[in-house]
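Re: that chain you flagged

S.,

Sorry for the slow reply, it's been a week of failed gels. I finally had a moment to sit down with the sequence you sent. For the record, here it is as I used it:
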Amino acid sequence: MALFVNSCFCLFLILVSQLARSQNSNSINNHRIIFVPDTFYNSFSINVPPVLTINSGDTVYTETIDAFGKDKNGVKRKRGGNPLTGPFYIASAKPGDVLTITLIRTSLNRSYAYTTETFASRSLPKAIIRQMPAGRIVKWNLDIRNGFASPDSAAEHLRNFKVPLHPFLGCIGVAPNNKKNTILSFFQGNFGGNLDFKAIKQHAVVYLPVWHEGAFFYIGDAHAVQGDGEIGGNALETSMDVAFTIMLIKKEILTLNYPRVEDSTHLMAIGVAKEIEDALKIATAGLLEWLQHDYHLSLIESTQVMSTAIEYDIAEIADPEIVVVAKIKKEILSGLKK
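Prediction finished late last night. Pasting the structure tokens below so you have them in one place:
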């Protein structure tokens, strides 16, 4: 049934996309937009033409290909290295503003994924890492109907191993503010990027600072499931149907230095740096700022809230930068006046 529904959805995407293209429209102002990508990029950048202009309040239905460049049909569409869908130009977005992206849908659209048979160098002592052979690509089967993934492997002790599916976007970000206003799509930073944070899933809200006019927003690197840190160098890499709603917050109301994520249970501030201590400090400062802004806490009052209730996730250690998340349960904050 799931495969049938996905097939119908894909056919609908194609038909609506063809209709939109036949009207020679580079900008669609409807609130519900169907976009079928035919071009993908391996960087977050303002140096390529936007694929679509969208307005604050619009909802976009689209899809991604996997980190190796293959689409939902297994066709190679782009070289590997986290090919991205986008960029989407956000009308009226200016430097200093904030994008909020509500993920309406993050649905797997094929029955398999790939990962690597290795450990990231930061995850274990060097003596163990040196014992590892070159990382082999491993295929996993995705049982979407029952919600599990299992390795397609003849390894003796993995024959009955399975893990629950947890689809999420590994890459979500805008064009960075650096020397060339571009960065490869396996990097992460204050622009978002390859965050590999498993809370960036269906129903989550992602907050991104805007560095350029139009923001140049991208998504990609769909994961069927991933443990914290992505210690194998890859998650279960696959393709995905994605729907998101964009809202623009002007800088007079809110400014951010780093991304944030919110879901039904937590507020989550992201820190990115080359060293874990620095990433932790950035994340903690981001959560402190959030609590002070929304709950009007003094610095002294914040010590009592955060020291008793803060939680940390190490979202990513395999990539050039480390991603640490400082988070707090909304339930804990219910006694504070917002």
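What I noticed first: The helical segments are 2-22, 126-129, 276-295, 299-309.

Talk soon,
D.
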